[in-house]
Amino acid sequence: MKPWTLLLMSGFLWAMLGVGHAAPLLPDAEWRGYKTSFISPDGRVIDVGNQGVSHSEGQGYGMLLALVAEDRATFESLWEWTKKNLQRDDRLFGWRWTPDSNPPVQDWNNATDGDLLVAWALARAGERWQRPEWVAEARTIAQRVRATLIPTTAFGPVIIPGQEGFKEGENLTLNPSYWVFPALRTLARIDPDPVWEALRKSGLSLLALSRFGPSQLPPDWVVLHADGHLGLPSAPTKRRFGYEAIRLPIYLCWAGLKDPVLMQGFLHAWPSDDAPAWVDLANQDRAAYPLGLAQRSVRHAVSGCLGKTSGARPRIDPNDYYGSTLALFTQLILTRPEALP
Description:
- This protein is of the alpha+beta class.
- It is built from twelve helices and ten strands.
- It has helices spanning 3-16, 28-38, 56-68, 72-85, 112-128, 132-148, 181-190, 194-209, 248-254, 260-269, 293-305, 321-335, and strands spanning 54-55, 96-97, 152-153, 156-157, 167-168, 171-174, 222-224, 230-231, 240-241, 279-280.
- The strands form four sheets. It has a four-stranded antiparallel sheet with strand order 5-6-7-8, with no helix packed on it. A two-stranded antiparallel ribbon has the order 1-2.
- A hairpin with a 2-residue loop joins strand 3 and strand 4 (156-157).
- Helix 11 (293-305) packs parallel to helix 12 (321-335).
- Mean pLDDT is 91; it is low at 1-21.
């Protein structure tokens, strides 16, 4: 079957799922509020609480949200800004852009989750809006990730968080939340290679074997040793169950990979919105401040995925880019899980 035929079939299937020419999957008022707070007119997603920087991850998140909001103009501005300001010659992306720096990108190392998110968004938007060049670009990004950032280890194929800085001797430092499970499914479709399915399996195994502390929680970062065993990093800020690992239930729910044991661990650690925002999985030190919008949104998502209720859904906050992003993703996975198959 020719690629054009596959593309047309994909668009037809999208329409059959109720996404093709249907109403936006995000309420217009919430999307407008998000755009006003976090997206510049030229297409830069702004982390307002972090010196106004932008990340490849944030650009990918913004593109995904613009897609489900049926906002093609904003999607195109986001992609054009990303391409112009972050894309490297090898088609991957510099991980951070800082407005007050000259040049704005001081470190051209990539962040692999950002690469995956942008590729996922391009693939789905290309299918949705019949832009085969976007699908081709997504395929190129996926192939580059596959060639340079997915080594085979004693544990199976793993995702290196970036091309530099994550290998020490024979040990690798990994980030479990870089397994963007629904993105892997899309990339397997546009770049048919067995490594994407193998990555899905390795990611689930990684999560099953990297659970620490009384609540059996995944750390933000985990060390994969040469013999295949997993351990906590020595740096206290990296061995936390903090702001990185909280994304995992959203990705799992979105991909239809519910893990009740893992999700019960989240609820055990977060019995209420007053729970500590992070916990050190090595010594059980805790944050002196409670859950923020990001964690409260994920707590709501976890409860919903388990068929429980947890009160009113958190709403976006114009002062919290990350929490607001996870709040909108929570809404999508609980009300329209077919939004980005």
